[in-house]
Each structure stands twice: as C-alpha cells, then as structure tokens.
Design brief:
Rossmann fold; binds magnesium ion; Hemocyanin, N-terminal domain; binds (2S)-2-hydroxybutanedioic acid; Aminoacid_DH-like_N_sf; binds nicotinamide-adenine-dinucleotide; NAD(P)-bd_dom_sf; oxidoreductase; malate dehydrogenase (decarboxylating) (NAD+) activity; Malic_N_dom_sf; five-stranded parallel beta sheet; disordered C terminus; alpha/beta; 3 domains
C-alpha cells in the first residue's frame, strides 16, 4: 500500500517507476502531468540503463581503473537513489559485473571519497551526540518492518583503517548483496552507522568531513552507545538480525561476546569470514586429492591475528577437533603470525584471543623456529599445505615467500590472499601463479581475473569473501525464526559450501 501521492512518489526510490507508471496509476496517484506523456516499459527502461552503462564503459576505456570504477559506481548509485525496483533488477541480472562496483573493491574507494561523493543520505546515523535519544530516533525510520541491519562504527573499513562516518558505504554494499543474493526485501533492510568519532587525523582536519569531529569514544562510554542502539533496535523490531561489520578487533570480539546470547546478531568479519575460509580450506583438502578427514593433517600458516584471522582459527580448530575427536591436539597444525612474526607462548603482552594459538617453543624448536620468526622463515621451515593471509598488508606474500611455497609438503599448495581491497591483497593472482607455480589452489578476498598460463592453460582464481556466506546466514536465520546465531550454524553453512564445490570456477555464478 502506497500512502504517498504525486511528486512525493516520484522522489521515493522505493515506489518510483519513473516513466514506467501506466496511465491508470498516473491518474490514481496524482501523477498526471508530472511525467512526459509516453509510458516506457520496464524492459525498455532496463535496456536504456544498460546502454548508458555500456557507453560509459566505452567512453572511459584507457582511463585509470579507480576513475572508471567510481564512474560506474556513480551511475549505479544514481539509479539506486531514483528507482530501487530497476536498480535491483539490473544488479541481480548482472551481479558478476556489478558486485565489484557496489561491493568490494570499489566500495572501499567510495568510503575513502565519501564526503565528495555524498549526495543523499542512505540508512541511519547514530552518533555520540545522540545518547539518550536513540529509542525515539529509531522510529524515524520510515519502514514498518526491518529484517536485516548491517551496523558499523567505521573503525576498520576493509584494510583501509579508521574511516569514521565514511564507512557507511560498507553496510550499504553488504545489504545490496542481501537483496541480490538472498532475495531480502529491499524495503526491510537498514544500513547503520554508529558514529562514535574517529582517530583518523586527516578526517578530523577535513572541513568537509561529515561525521562527528572528535576522537573515538572508548571503554564504558563506547559500550553504552552500542547498548543503547541495540536496545532501541530490538524494541522496535524484535525479530530483526544485526550484522556487525568492520569493527576494530577489540570491539568486534567484545560486542560479539556481549550480545550473541541476548540478541539475534553475528559478527561477519569474525564468523562469516571463518565460515568461508573453512569451506575453502576443506575444499583445498579435496582439491589436493585427499579425504576430508585429512584436514587435520594439513599444516596451515595464518598471517594476521586480527578479528578475521582469529575467527578463522577458532572455527578451523573446532572443525579439526570434531574430525579427529581430540581437542587437545587440534591447534597443532596451525601457525599464527602477526605484525611481530610467529606467535609463541614466549610472546610478551599476548592478546588473550590469540593465546590459544600461540606455539609451545618445544613444538617448533625442532623446525629451527623461535618466537617472532619471520614469514619467510616460517614458510621455508614449516613447508605448509596452506598459506592464508588476513593481515591487511598488500604484497606481504612477496616473490621469495611465494617461491618458498614451491617446497610445500603438498604438490598442490593453497594460497589464500584474503585481505581487501585489491591493493591490500597479500599477493596478486598473477604473482601467485608466476612464483608459486601452476599447481596452486588460489583464492583472494577481492576479485582477480583468471591467469593465462600460456599453452592454453588457465590459473583459476576463486574468491574467498564472506559475501558467499552472510546472505545465506541472514536468510536462514530469518526463515527459521532462530532466536540467536550459533557457531554451529556457521559451521553447517561452511560444510554445505564444501559439499557444493567451492573451488568450481563456476561457483560464483551458481551461487548467484
Ligand atoms: N576475504 C574476506 O572475506 C575478509 C573478511 C574479513 C576481513 N578481511 C580482510 O582481512 C584484513 C584484516 O582484517 P581484520 O579485521 O582481521 O583486521 P585486524 O586489524 O583486526 O587484524 C590485522 C592483523 O594483521 C596483523 N598484521 C599487520 N601487519 C602484519 C605483517 N606485516 N605481518 C603479519 N601480520 C600483520 C596485525 O598484527 C593484526 O593481527 C582486512 O584487509 C580485511 O579487509 C577479508
Ligand atoms: O567486505 C568485504 O569484502 C569482506 C570483509 O568483510 C572485509 O572486511 O574485508
Ligand atoms: Mg568486513
């Protein structure tokens, strides 16, 4: 039921059909005279949009990649702001081409340039200045029902760091994937920015910055803002699901523990990433010609001990414990590195979340390894079956590291460069195949083209991005009416992916 009339409808992207309103509707809704007389069918509108998109592609050929991607994002964003029905139709039909524009990697560039790109607000903004007001503010949202919320505080946007209020692009992109991949009703999604300040000096000094210009709230002050937001959301929409996204590690873990048994929520970077990575790890076991149970025999080096890396380790160790029936030895195959190198029990001031994965010196001395050993030392000595990067550091899998993977104990070593966006990937697909050899199983967080290996051979690139999991988690939770989201649900999703061939090159098409 549309309660609006006339120009209000034309300015509402939920209901606007532009020139597509038939004459009967134009009369009923008070639109007669507000549109050119000719009625254009939905199919014609669709063709017109795609033609303008294609001519933009033609006209920007040869220009720098960032310029072209932003131009594509702008044309899609304008349609999103004008006519959501048409926007989601073109998005769904062209998801392979448009996902890298409305989602990773272009969304990262959009967040970095948000002040300049801003035309219309999308979603809701709760700031440090709204304390005590959130319960009434939540009723300002025009939709009666909201099913899916993606929430960020902008403190760790992809591998780009603290982008403050500009991080709103991430919830918007994630929710577009919910609509396109899981069929969630676009009128029931809500992107949210929790603006508690920023520690990004450049933004604080930027006159055009649109967020609260103060350092980030910390401690109890911070938590009281998130608490108030969660109470407000679940008071108005008790059946909603809240996805936490791109929170810096300390708050990612703390909020997950704080809310996971009280509210229907999950942290995508910790849990969604873990589900996708585990599916990939299990897929790699099979790609190497082994049985699934051989997963526990693999040596896996994880580079990055943040919310994502530790999430992956937690879920992988749980899976290994289940498969081997032995939780004592389940951490043995995993080697964890952070910015200070190999993490061992000798580490001073170890993060409690990383502590379970710290190596005993007695277990690694035989390999000639020590506390803080470098990545190249670890790869050379461990000869891992899998090298998995979630460090946010572009190029850290450099030539020497990749060449060392040729000596892996596996004839088909797996290299997962999962950091985003493209510039932050641990290596490119081309470098991986060039230096580590043609037999590798390669996956990356941001999309890369398949690699031409010559002689008609192709190095296949798989995408290991949590976008393959979170839409299904949200939809499954919604349909089942689950009250909370458990690790078991994430594990089941990841095992489903494994049995449905994550490493099939057509996988992404099949999924969509
Ligand atoms: N592909 C996906 O689906 C996916 C999902 C989540 C996160 N990510 C990406 O993973 C990256 C990390 O995310 P996060 O939330 O864990 O961040 P984080 O800031 O919590 O953790 C980063 C970790 O990397 C470590 N690190 C930094 N420099 C290093 C170096 N030189 N060598 C080894 N380790 C180093 C840090 O010590 C820290 O432990 C980001 O780029 C993010 O975009 C990808
Ligand atoms: O946003 C993405 O593309 C994946 C992931 O959530 C990330 O933070 O990098
Ligand atoms: Mg994320």
């Amino acid at each position: 039921m549309v309660h609006k009339r006339g120009a209000d409808i034309l300015h509402d992207p939920w209901f606007n059909k532009d020139t597509g309103f038939p004459l009967t509707e134009r009369d009923r809704l008070g639109l007669r005279g507000l549109l050119p007389p000719r009625v254009i069918s939905f199919e014609q509108q669709y063709t017109r949009f795609m033609e303008s998109y294609q001519s933009l592609e033609k006209n920007t050929k040869g220009q720098p990649e960032g310029v072209v991607s932003l131009a594509k994002w702008r044309i899609l964003n304008r349609l999103h702001d004008r006519n959501e029905t048409l926007y989601y139709r073109v998005l769904i039909d062209n998801i392979k081409d448009f996902a890298p524009i409305i989602y990773t990697p272009t969304v990262g560039l959009v967040c970095q340039n948000y002040s300049g790109l801003f035309r219309r607000p999308r979603g809701m903004y709760f700031s440090a200045k709204d304390k005590g007001e959130m319960m009434s503010m939540i009723y300002n949202w025009p939709a009666q029902q909201v099913d899916m919320i993606v929430l960020t505080d902008g403190s760790r946007i992809l591998g780009l760091g603290d982008l403050g209020v500009q991080g709103i692009g991430i919830p918007i992109g994630k929710l577009d994937m919910y609509v396109a991949a899981a069929g969630i009703n676009p009128q029931r999604i809500l992107p949210v920015m929790l603006d508690v300040g920023t520690n990004n000096q450049k933004l604080l000094e930027d006159q055009l910055y649109l967020g609260v210009r103060q350092p980030r709230l910390e401690g109890e002050e911070y938590l009281s803002i998130v608490d108030e937001f969660m109470e407000a959301v679940f008071t108005r929409w008790p059946k909603a699901i809240v996805q936490f996204e791109d929170f810096q590690m300390k708050w990612a873990f703390e909020t997950l523990q704080r809310y996971r048994k009280r509210f229907c929520m999950f942290n995508d970077d910790v849990q969604g990433t873990a589900g996708v990575a585990l599916a990939g790890l299990l897929g790699a076991v099979r790609a190497q010609g082994w049985q699934l149970a051989d997963f526990v025999k693999q040596k896996i080096v994880v580079v990055g001990a943040g919310s994502a890396g530790l999430g992956v380790l937690n879920m992988s160790v749980q899976a290994a414990a289940r498969m081997s029936g032995n939780s004592e030895t389940a951490t043995k195959p995993f080697f964890l590195l952070d910015k200070d190198g190999l993490v061992t029990k000798e580490r001073k001031h170890i993060d409690p979340a990383a502590a379970p994965f710290a190596k005993n010196l007695s277990d690694i001395e035989g390999l000639g390894l020590r506390e803080g050993a470098s990545l190249i030392e670890v790869v050379k000595k461990v000869k891992p079956h899998v090298l998995l990067g979630l460090s946010g550091v572009g190029g850290i899998f450099h030539e020497e590291v990749l060449k060392a993977m040729r000596e892996s104990d596996s004839p088909k070593p797996a290299i997962f460069a999962m950091s985003n966006p493209t510039m932050n990937a641990e290596c490119t697909a081309t470098d991986a195949f060039k230096h580590a050899g043609e037999n590798i199983v390669f996956a990356s967080g941001s999309p890369f083209e398949n690699v031409d290996l010559g002689n008609g051979k192709v190095g296949h690139v798989n995408q290991a991005n949590n976008m393959y999991l979170f839409p299904g988690i949200g939809l499954g939770t919604l349909l089942s009416g689950a009250r909370i989201i458990t690790d078991g649900m994430l594990q089941a999703a990841s095992e489903w992916y494994n049995t449905h061939n994550v490493f099939d090159p057509c996988f992404s098409v099949l999924f969509m």
